[in-house]
């Protein structure tokens, strides 16, 4: 805290509402708080020259190191993901990262470094799962669209080829595919259907 008196008088500093563990040096105006407590804290600083005084209220919001990690864990659990909908590898990675995150949240002395690392690991695992989910949903939409277009298409080798690709896509959806496999099937199906509508393959 710095002050300046227009008349050059000596200014005395003081503070009220200083949180436990924090220190305010009235001589230097330096405020320190090495191990801040999570929450919102209001501190009032006062400067006086003996005749007049000025006060300034400051609000300090301290976020616990576990806050971001807890928010991410809550988001994932609220997503309603099911193991049966994903490949073993991506689900295993998410489950492991989630278990580790919860273990850290249960620690009373979890450090910021631990929480930050857990957030990164959990985000990576969660992203892999959501990417797989999104890719599957996009393939499902592509299958529905392909069926509609193929009904109106004339018979021929192009349509027969597209039907084979469609069957492969539907089989993949019944199983568990990776995000890459779903994406490949979607592109392949789109190309096959396009061949019917553009007539790139002769009957």
Features:
203 residues; two-stranded antiparallel sheet; 5 strands; alpha+beta
Q: Could you please describe the fold and organization of this structure?
A:
- There is one protein chain.
- Strands 1-4-5 form a 3-stranded antiparallel beta sheet, with no helix packed on it. Strands 2-3 form a two-stranded antiparallel sheet.
- It is elongated and about 100 Å long.
- The N and C termini lie far apart (84 Å).
- The mean pLDDT is 90.
- Helix 3 (112-151) runs antiparallel to helix 4, helix 3 (112-151) packs parallel to helix 5 (179-198) and helix 4 packs antiparallel against helix 5.
- The chain has 203 residues and is α+β, with helices and mostly antiparallel strands.
- 20% of the residues are buried.
- Helix content is 54%, strand content 15%.
């Amino acid at each position: 805290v710095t002050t300046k008196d227009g008349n050059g008088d000596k200014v005395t500093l003081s503070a009220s509402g200083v949180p436990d563990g924090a220190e305010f040096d009235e001589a230097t105006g330096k405020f320190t708080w090495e191990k801040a407590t999570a929450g919102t804290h209001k501190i009032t600083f006062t400067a006086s020259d003996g005749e007049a005084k000025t006060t300034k209220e400051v609000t300090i919001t301290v976020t616990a190191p576990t806050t971001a990690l807890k928010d991410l864990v809550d988001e994932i659990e609220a997503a309603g993901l099911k193991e049966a909908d994903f490949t073993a590898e991506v689900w295993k990675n998410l489950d492991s990262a989630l278990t580790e995150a919860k273990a850290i949240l249960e620690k009373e002395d979890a450090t910021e470094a631990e929480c930050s690392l857990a957030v990164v690991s959990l985000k990576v695992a969660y992203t892999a799962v959501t990417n797989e989910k999104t890719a599957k949903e996009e393939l499902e939409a592509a299958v529905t669209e392909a069926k509609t277009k193929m009904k109106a298409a004339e018979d021929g080798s192009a349509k027969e080829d597209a039907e084979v690709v469609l069957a492969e896509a539907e089989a993949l959806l019944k199983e568990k595919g990776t995000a890459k496999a779903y994406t490949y099937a979607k592109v392949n199906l789109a190309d096959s259907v396009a061949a019917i509508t553009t007539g790139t393959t002769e009957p």
